[in-house]
Design goal:
Chain A: This is ABC transporter permease. The structure holds 2 protein chains of 2 kinds. Chain A contains 12 helices and no strands. Chain A is mainly alpha-helical. By secondary structure, chain B is α/β, with parallel strands linked by helices. Chain B contains 12 helices and 12 strands. In chain B, strands 6-7-8-3-9-10-12-11 form an 8-stranded mixed sheet, sandwiched between helices. In chain B, a hairpin with a 2-residue loop joins strand 4 and strand 5. In chain B, 42% of the residues are buried. Classes of the chains: A mainly alpha, B alpha/beta. Chains A and B meet through helix 9 and helix 10 of A and helix 3, strand 6, helix 4 and helix 7 of B.
C-alpha cells in the first residue's frame, strides 16, 4: 500500500491526475452540499453575471450555472466510467481471444475490428441515439459498444506475445483448457497497458457525450456539461460565462483521466519514462 | 515390442514461408523414426537449430506435425487427443529449458503446483493436495517447503525453479517426460543436483524420458540410448556405450572428438569441421552433412544414405562406414 503511494507520487502526471480525480469524485459525491441552488429550478434572474449570489452566473432560463456544473460532474463521471468499462471488457475479451487462438479466428476478428475502426463512430452513435432515443443508459451503451476497438487491438498484441511465452506452453502441457489459460494467464498478465488505455477511454467517452449533448441529442432529463455549453452557445455574445465554465469543467475532467492514463503508461513502461 | 511406450514414424515438421519463397521450405524435423520403451531414457543430441526442440514439442502436442505418426501405447496421438485429451496430457509431460519463464509470474508456488492436481482430479481436498506437494518438495530438497509455497517464481533461483518444474511434471505420475535442455540455463554447480533429482524420480516411478540436449557428457550420463540429430534427421542411434565409444557416423565422431574434457593433458585427435553452421533451408538431395564432412565423396552428393544396421540396435546413416 505504501509502495503504491510512493509510486504514484514519484510520477508527476499521475500525481496531478489523481489529485484532480479525487477532487472530481468529492464534487460528484457531495454535489447537493456544494451546489447552492437546484440546477433544475428556473428563476427570474436571467443571464445574471457571475456575482457573489451566482458564482458562475445564470443561464438563459435563469438556472444557476455553478450548480449545473457541479451536478453535471455526476453525469459525466457516470457516462465516462461506465462506457469505458463496457468498452474495455468487450475489447479485452475480443482482443484476447483473437490474439491467443490466432489463425482463422484471429483473421475474422481482425477484419471486424478494422470494420469498426473505419466506421465514423460518432455518426453511428448519432444514428443509434436518433432511433432508440437519447436516454443516459442508451448513450452509455452506445459509446461503450463503439469504442472497444483500440482496447481490442492492444489486447490482441499482448495476447500474441504472451502466447509464445514458456509459461503458456507449460500451462498447455499440464492440461489447462484454453478458457482457463485465457482468463487465468493471458488476461491477468496483459492487463496493465489496458488499464492505462481504459483511463484514457474515460476521457474520450466524456467528450463524446459532451458532443452529443452539444448538438442536442443528449439525455434531456439530466444536467450535463455538453448541454450547458449547447445552451450557452446562443448567449455567447451577452453571457460568456455559461459556455466558459461548462467548457472548463470538461477540460478539467478529460485532463485528469488523460494524465492518469499517461502516468500509468509511463510507470509500466520503463522505456518511455524520462530520467529525472 | 510389448513394452514399447511411444513409436514415432516418419515424423516431419516443415515451416512453409508465406508469399513468394515457397521453395524455401524450412525443414525443422525431416522424417524421424524412433521408438521409446517403458522406463528407458533416450538422449537426443544435436547442435542449435537442428530441430530437436521442435521434435520434443511435437511429442507433447504443442506443435502439429506436417506428416508422420506418433503412437502412444499403440494408439495414434491424434485419436487420444480427440477422445481423452487430459489422459494424454497427464501421461506426457514436458520440462522446459527456461525455468524463469515456465511459470506464470502472478501465481505462487502453491497455486502452480496444485493446479495440475486439480485439473487431473488427483487428491480429494485442497488440504490433501497441499500435503502432497509439501511431501514431494521436501523429498527433492526444497526445504522447508512451508516457507516456499507462498513465494512467487521471481523469488526463487533457477535451480529451485527447475526443481519445481520437475515436481510439477512428476506429480501427475506421467509415463513419458520430455526434458528439453533442462539444465542448460542453470549454473554449473546445481546441474548435477537437478539431473540426479530427475533421474531418481523417474527411476522410482518407472517413467520413460526423452532428454534433449547439446551436451554430450550430460546426455551420456543420463541416457540408456542416444540419438544424434543433424538438420532434422537422426544420423546415428544406439546404446550410450556404442555411441560414445564406438561412433560410426562422421558427425558423431566430430561431436565426440570435440567434447570438452576436464583433463587438459589428455591427448585427443580433434576432428575439425569446415563450413558454415547448417540451415534447414533448401537441403538435399545428397547427404545433409556432405558440405562439412571430412570424408565425403561423390556418392554422398547424389542421395541421402539409408540407415544401416550395425547390430545391437546401433544404426547410422552414412555410406562410408
Amino acid at each position: 500500500m505504501k509502495d503504491i503511494f510512493t509510486k504514484i507520487s514519484s510520477n508527476k502526471e499521475l500525481k496531478i491526475g489523481v489529485i484532480f480525480l479525487i477532487m472530481l469524485i468529492l464534487i460528484a459525491v457531495f454535489a447537493p452540499h456544494i451546489a447552492n441552488y437546484d440546477p433544475y429550478v428556473l428563476n427570474d434572474d436571467i443571464i445574471a453575471k457571475p456575482s457573489s449570489k451566482y458564482i458562475f452566473g445564470t443561464d438563459g432560463l435563469g438556472r444557476d450555472v455553478f450548480s449545473m456544473v457541479i451536478y453535471g460532474s455526476r453525469t459525466s463521471l457516470k457516462i465516462g466510467v461506465l462506457a469505458a468499462a463496457i468498452s474495455s471488457v468487450i475489447g479485452t475479451l475480443i482482443g484476447g481471444i483473437a490474439g491467443y487462438i490466432g489463425g482463422t479466428v484471429d483473421k475474422i476478428i481482425s477484419e471486424i475490428i478494422n470494420m469498426f475502426l473505419m466506421l465514423p463512430t460518432f455518426f453511428l452513435i448519432l444514428i443509434v441515439v436518433a432511433i432508440y432515443g437519447g436516454s443516459l443508459k442508451n448513450i452509455i451503451i452506445v459509446i461503450g459498444l463503439t469504442s472497444w476497438t483500440g482496447t481490442a487491438r492492444l489486447m490482441r498484441a499482448q495476447a500474441m506475445s504472451l502466447r509464445e511465452r514458456t509459461f503458456i506452453k507449460s500451462a498447455i502441457t499440464i492440461g489447462e483448457s484454453n478458457k482457463e489459460i485465457l482468463f487465468k494467464h493471458i488476461i491477468p498478465n496483459g492487463i496493465f497497458p489496458i488499464i492505462a488505455d481504459s483511463t484514457m477511454a474515460v476521457s474520450s467517452a466524456i467528450l463524446s457525450e459532451a458532443g452529443l449533448s452539444f448538438i442536442g441529442i443528449g439525455d434531456p432529463n439530466v444536467v450535463s456539461w455538453g448541454k450547458i455549453i449547447a445552451h450557452g452557445r446562443g448567449y455567447l455574445t451577452n453571457g460568456w460565462w455559461i459556455c466558459t465554465f461548462g467548457g472548463i469543467a470538461i477540460i478539467f475532467t478529460v485532463l485528469a483521466f488523460y494524465l492518469i492514463g499517461e502516468g500509468i503508461n509511463n510507470l509500466l513502461n520503463p522505456k518511455s519514462s524520462r530520467l529525472n | 515390442m510389448v513394452n514399447s511406450l511411444m513409436k514415432i514414424k516418419g515424423l516431419t515438421k516443415w515451416y512453409i514461408p508465406k508469399g513468394k519463397n515457397k521453395n524455401k521450405i524450412i525443414k525443422a524435423v525431416d522424417g524421424i523414426d524412433l521408438s521409446i520403451n517403458k522406463g528407458e531414457v533416450l538422449g537426443i543430441i544435436g547442435e542449435s537449430g537442428c530441430g530437436k526442440s521442435t521434435f520434443g514439442r511435437m511429442l507433447v502436442a504443442l506443435e502439429k506435425p506436417t506428416a508422420g505418426s506418433i503412437k502412444f501405447e499403440g494408439v495414434p496421438i491424434n485419436q487420444i487427443l480427440k477422445e481423452n485429451q487430459l489422459h494424454f496430457k497427464k501421461n506426457c509431460q514436458m520440462i522446459f529449458q527456461d525455468p524463469f519463464d515456465t511459470f506464470d509470474p502472478r501465481n505462487n508456488i502453491q497455486r502452480i503446483l496444485t493446479t495440475p492436481l486439480k485439473i487431473h482430479n488427483i487428491g480429494s481436498s485442497h488440504k490433501e493436495r497441499i500435503d502432497m506437494i509439501i511431501e514431494i518438495m521436501e523429498e527433492t530438497g526444497i526445504k522447508p517447503a512451508k516457507d516456499f509455497i507462498h513465494r512467487y517464481p521471481h523469488e526463487l533461483s533457477g535451480g529451485q525453479l527447475q526443481r519445481i518444474s520437475i515436481i510439477r511434471s512428476m506429480l501427475l505420475n506421467p509415463k513419458l517426460i520430455i526434458a528439453d535442455e533442462p539444465v542448460s540455463m542453470l549454473d554449473v554447480s546445481v546441474r548435477a543436483d537437478i539431473i540426479n533429482i530427475l533421474l531418481n524420480l523417474i527411476k522410482k516411478h518407472g517413467t520413460s524420458m526423452i532428454f534433449i540436449s547439446h551436451d554430450i557428457a550430460t546426455t551420456g550420463y543420463v541416457s540408456d540410448k542416444i540419438a544424434i540429430m543433424y538438420l532434422g534427421k537422426i544420423v546415428e542411434i544406439g546404446s550410450t556405450d556404442d555411441i560414445i565409444k564406438n561412433a560410426q557416423h562422421p558427425y558423431t565422431k566430430v561431436l565426440i572428438s570435440n567434447c570438452a574434457s576436464i583433463d587438459p593433458f589428455e591427448k585427443r585427435n580433434r576432428i575439425k569441421v569446415k563450413g558454415e553452421p547448417p540451415t534447414p533451408v533448401g537441403t538435399g538431395p545428397g547427404c545433409y552433412f556432405y558440405e562439412r564432412c571430412y570424408r565425403g565423396n561423390d556418392r554422398c552428393k547424389e542421395s541421402y544414405p539409408e540407415m544401416m544396421d550395425l547390430g545391437n540396435g546401433h544404426y547410422a546413416s552414412c555410406f562410408n562406414i
